Records
---
Amino acid sequence: MARPTTVPRSDVLLTVMGAPYENDLLTSVLRLSQAMLEGGATVQIWACGYATMLTQRGLGDSKPRNLAAWEVDHPSTSLLVREMLLAFPDRLRWYACRFCSDDRGAVDHIPEVPVRAPARFAEHVAAADKTLYLGVM
Amino acid sequence: MTVAEEGRRALAIVERAYRGAVETQFSDGLYCAYLFHRHLGGLDVLLRGPAVGYAVRAARTPVPRLGKRELTTVNTPGDGLNVLLEAGVGVWIEEQDLRAYGPDAESGLLPGVRTVPAGAMAARWPGYRAVFYL
């Protein structure tokens, strides 16, 4: 018998397998999430692989300065994820895979992002009506 | 660097059209070219393959909304090329790949970008102090 889960139910689970900084996968993940959330859905995101780098506290709130546009602020991915979580309380959740985080030294996530052991991934799948896998490792 | 190499430009070949719009924003390959131009004492950029699209005017895409924020700082390669051109970087584009990009590609080419026959840039390599992919 399956053990009880503490993972909140969601309409959709997005499992981000592909790496950022390689193509526009992350842009698609965030825009897709935003569209579903604006439509009233509940969404959880499980960040695997190098997607675990996106929510590191060490990124701060801003990217490094642009020498060609010194006064323009460029938000970090950590800040963008935190802002999305704040904009959709209780309807968006972002989790980071512990193995992938440890494997990359990405061990200091922002406090809004819980770290989950890969053994619990099945619970997250079970808590979602639909699961989408995005990208490959 | 030898004395003979001083004052000579480097050539960066950009082939891979790549954005990573949200996470990369300004810090893409073209920004790296801007830094190399400043720090290596001069740079030319050759756009080939899918990267020719960087130099072709395109319709503005909608600004992504993330949470309550309109993210206006996603990267736009055309703007990145304009920064390079204003800084004195020579921007070249291979004609064959430009034609392959689309029938309107040549008429939509950004001002200041110069075209070159496919493979012709290789004949100029000896004039550069370094040639590398970016």
---
Amino acid sequence: MVLVLVLFLVSITIAAYSTFSERKVAAFIQDRLGPNRAGPFGLLQPLADGVKMIMKEEIIPTTSNTILFVGGPAITMITALMTSAVIPWGPSITIAGQKVALQVADINVGVLYVMGVVSLGVYGIMIGGWASNNKFALLGAVRASTQMISYELAMGMSVIAIIMTTGSLSIGNIVHHQNGWHGMEWNIIAQPLGFLIFLICAFAECNRTPFDLPESETELVGGYHTEYSSMKLGFYLFAEYVNMFISSAMITCLYFGGYNFPLMDWVQSNTNEIWFALICVGVFLAKIIFFIFFFMWIRWTIPRFRFDQLMNLGWKVLLPLSILNMLLTGAFIIFNQ
Amino acid sequence: MQSLTNRSKVVSNKQMTLSEKLYIPAILAGLQVTIQHFFKKKVTINYPEETREHSKFFRGRHVLKRDDQGRENCTACGLCAVACPAEAITMVAEERKKGEEHLYREEKYAAEYDINMLRCIFCGLCEEACPKDAIYLTNRISLSNYDRNQFIYTKDMLLEGNEEDLRINIDNRRNGVREGAN
């Protein structure tokens, strides 16, 4: 229960500071300074943004379906936050003779749970876009659902290869499985193609550039959240950053060894359990932050895809490649037996 | 056929090579460019704390000078108004009366002296035309306003103060020293 609260706060804080660092990274890449007025280095900017969002006037269009209109952002936010439950933060520690896992729920179908909840996330966007009763919002919602369905397939296929090598659907087990070679037996080494596919699909699932067609400002005003204002808009934007955080955590868990780090066994034998767990959590967070930075780095490098290019890439490139990857992995496992 | 300029380029419709089709090398090259910019020196000037340097030849708001005894230099000869290509300067001349010798240096002075800052192009020809060293362009910024009428600067806005510390050093402009909000 404590862990749930801590995790909630951590997700919210990281997402809040992602909005800040997004602006900073954008500014730095464009040779600017970015927000630096609120507090030292502008560190209070997320707070100011939050207050601003809440104080804004809330407008619900008269022609909209009010219940669905309010429900849309709620669903998006809930599904975004739900995923973090199965992420293992570090090795289990012993407190007062009891073994405590640094994971809210080590359910044995963790990967399946994540895929399921992530695909529910599109409902929030679809409902919001539909309830707005606005053609731009609807177009954005349609794009979002098409994109999510197309890329979820390739994503699932690339994850299946991981599941085959690990022999488990539990994310805790998958991370533990990458423990070998002094904590360097990461799945990226065995599955570079799978990693690439998963990474591209993660970008698409988060609606991040170059796959930000559902909310493309230049063509669709604001996409599915055109009609939203105040904190409801804030929830949509915030959920994107929470999703980014979860995606980074998933990439880290599945391909970059989770909390495993080089010379891990040596550190373990030289420190006590609590310190070791803390170092593991720190390493895990550092990896997540790197991937969040990578998301932003990509955003300010690559322009948006055209919609037909997006569909071509999803169905004609990524899906066959991921099936090929799965077959190769299967063949490799069989011949190695 | 020989091209007239060397700027034209032949359009190439050749097939992309495999590495070009993959896009990954191109994306990596793009990432390299952006990360280089990430660590570059930033061009932003933090405005209220820092200000941008003016050029040595910057010409800003005008000032009507006094001589060292505090008397107005301007004799309302109108040469500045004639020289002004934008016809921004208008004035009304007046004869100096007895007892006003401490106010005006010569027998004639400008009772009114207006510069329309919306017309002014800050060319500095008025300064060059003036035979009495009365009008100068300083490096002070001409202020913005909400009302068009407020852009007509009257004599009391243009004239420098009489006290020593209210005087405006016209050499500052050439030396690049920033004036206070005078």
